[in-house]
Amino acid sequence: MAATHKVAQDTANGAAGNDFSIIRLLLEGRAFFSLIAIVLVFSLLSPVYFSTGNFLIMASHVAIYGLLAIGMLLVILTGGIDLSVGSTLGLCGVVAGALMQGVSLDAFGSVFYPSVWVVVVLTCALGAFVGAVNGVLIAYFKVPAFVATLGILYVARGVALLLTDGLTYNNLAGAPELGNTGFDWLGFNQFLGVPIGVLALIIVALIANVLLNRTALGRWVYSTGGNARAAELSGVPVKYTTITVYVLSGVCAAIAGLVLSSQLTSAGPTAGNTYELTSIAAVVVGGAALTGGRGNVRGTLLGAFVIGFLSDGLVIIGVSAYWQTVFTGAVIVFAVLLNSIQYSHRPKPSATAAAAAPSIPRKEPAS
Amino acid sequence: MSVASTAPGASVEPVEPVEPLEPVLSARNIAKHFGSVRALNGVNFDVHRGQVTTLFGENGAGKSTLMKILSGVYKPTSGEILLDGRPVSFDSVTEARDRGISIIHQELSLAPNLSVRDNIFMGREIRTPIGIDFAQEARLTRALMAELEEDIDPLTLVEDLRLGQQQIVEIARALSVKSRILIMDEPTSALSASEVEALFKVIRDLTSRGVSIVYISHHLEEALQITDHAVVLRDGNMTARAPRADIDLEWIVRNMVGDNFDLGRPPGGYDFGEVALSIEDAVVTEVSGANVVDHLSLSVRAGEIVCIYGLMGAGRTELLEAVAGRGELVNGRVLLEGKDMAGLTIAERIACGLALVPEDRQRDGLVQTMSVGQNLSLASIRAFVKRIFTSRQRERELVDESIRRVTIKTSGGSAAIGSLSGGNQQKVVIGKMLATHPKVLLLDEPSRGIDIGAKAEVFRLVAEGARQGLAVVFSTSEVGECLSVAHRVVVMRRGRIAAEFGADASKEKIMAVSGEAVVA
Lengths: 367, 520
What we know:
Chain A contains 17 helices and four strands. Chain A is an all-alpha fold and about 375 residues long.
């Protein structure tokens, strides 16, 4: 047994070798180390960066990206992509805003003001619905994820603009006599000093983490992304898994929409524009593979913090908005570069299979 | 031995000197090792000018490896290649092609969405300062087609051509780079009889013009019609080499199969149980509407091992996938212990006790991003889920038990799947399906691409399962496996059962029925 153990170890280390263990450590913990580096650098450059107040503000920003990124992670793990999350966020915010203005029921000739909890539930249901449309298009109608969610990106944004006629709902506070106060609680209140938005992110992240690691669905998600054909032949309900991850991504977008409109105390139809790209970036910086099957919640959270802390830091030290875009883009490209280095250092199935049993028999005619 | 024989039926044999010809291309002591696996051991053979040399051998004998070495895909571990008597070494396929060696793979490497002209000049377009000289390309294409006596318009899209014509396009492409040596890997496997005839005519035409052909085919009879020399490989060793005049079918089979290795005998000493799987009048159609599986019926009893033998395209994979729920059954039904499987998903069939070990383990069997343990437990997740959470404890027990049972050589369940050898990866796929406690296990080419030791272990697992009442159906294209593993051999040909053999089967009989060796 000891011998076989060693053989397997040697194969695993074959490409990288033991001499590079520090490099490997840096490589595997790169999101964590870059977060530390970002905090250190900006703390030196600006006296206000390293303060509780600033961290809370930055964390509130990160909460939005983070919520979207957790949903995006689930989708990316199955080998898909969800471009519609930014629009879904906007649509859900607008619908929440509209509900806060009251729903006029013509049949009764009166206006109904749902309480905030009802608004939250309805909004999440809307996010789930948008996700379900994505999922069904992809799983049953075989529309490529990129195209399906791109289409829904436009549709959701268009519907949000139609609903509001391009205007923004500014009065989200509700009125005590209508019994619908408390919407700004999500964006402004704190629990034990932590903003509610950040708490929402933490809770969603914990749920996603348990889901991925300790439930059958989590295993299905990883296997679908790793090799959908093999997963299907092993009895994994690939279609169900696909739809579920898009639904969950939609719900995450809805929560993010609620938190964002609460933070801004306004719900505009253009909210969340291009946020899908930021959340994809967070997932990628967190070490997940866009090809599916690789990635985890911890990395994605770190990725969201890296991107959030970096862009806020650039704002604080007064770098122009144009340069911020350049920096963020460079970080993303660099992260993907490191991802491909990391994954190429693992024993590749194809390469090892070729070494162990030459790939000829695979190409060999089966007759 | 020294006199080159004439190709049978080559009435247009040109004025070639019938003398000992200097070989154009020679392989001297070629060996190729992949890690610890020796794919080739000291192979020698010559390719003579204007003649057809055929390589015979079973799957995994090393034919493809040898071809890949000759065409510059691989570099030999040792030995040398002589081109016109001078040692050469190719770093790439392009380099080999520039020296006049082209290979036509079994899976054609044409772009179906492009025209014949564009395919022939792909990657070496005739350029002018303002773009591609399409007129000149078309002219040359037309000339090539005329040379091959094939009436194909240069602007036809390749996807609109019949397979045989596509092959002609591949040959034209090879000729357009002035290839002197053409390697053809299973060129006839997907062709109709008349297309084979046309191809042979082209081959004879080519050889009469001095082009040398290296030919690989599993259709022994067919290959004998065209070849001038035969080289037989077995397990990476060259077992025999002779000109056409000195050989016959029996000689090839004897040298190909050998009789020194025996996988053992089918498990015995017990009675079969009830019928576990019964396939009734199954029909599977492919996209074109043709029946890949054609009204086939088969029943297997508990404890019985049935082998489906057949050539590529006989419909074995399609049959097994349809039974497992992957493909659609157009007609007929599948009964598992009397229960109709119609409308059940793959997952539901697995739950009922019907499991498939797919043919291509990389593509269909393994999730490469997951560990050995996660792969082993993938099909039986429900067995270790408590309420909604997976139980790590139970999963570890399941994985450890599987590793022990199917004897996977690994450091443990958390090892990367890519760290295993091909044989052990195959055992992971089998172990994964065995963990679902199936009643019927289907294995599609379980011995494909694994070494002989692993093969023996895989079939030991199959025999062990059968002894405990598992009904096993496995497909193979290695005739030796049928006899030493299965209680019953079913030969499939063109979607139908061509014959069934019990214990009295012989290699020759099986191969004859499959259409591989049509003994007159």
